[in-house]
Amino acid sequence: YGAKIRAPHALVMTFLFKSGSLREKLRSIAQATYAHSRNLAYFVFTYKGLLAAQARLQGKRIPFHSFLAACIGGWLVFGDNNPINSQIIMYLLSRVLFASAQLAVQKGYIPQPRQDPFPLLAALVWGTVLWLFEYHRETLQPSLQSSMTYLYEDSEVWHDLSDFLIYNKRTDSK
To answer: GO CC annotations (predicted)?
Structure first.
């Protein structure tokens, strides 16, 4: 599963934003795909093993077991702050926040909004990320910095249609 998810992403991001020879790019894609796949496999093995161990020790499985097993697995497998783990954690964080908000409404902890809150969320997220990009760029994840640089700075220089179709980072040596 990790290879299925990571390989296409790594392929696109590498050819869009990384420099180097074809061999270096292919090696980078393979390394990212391997790291993603390996980490997911290690995590699943750790999580499932810890679930089984807890259920065996207590004679049954309780909801806290999944939380504890995932915390331990997350610490052991994804605790190293590297680009692959960082992307996986950011992906999960966004989904956890959405799910937590839905659960809070379902459980009655917060009232059901009268209007869809998504437009406000979209406005706040985009406002914050562009403010961070403009004034505190170093705080953003490198691949997000690259994407935003491409969209908001590199796009100010145009040579021909290839800038839009391929990549517009070239010198004016024509």
So the answer is: peroxisomal membrane
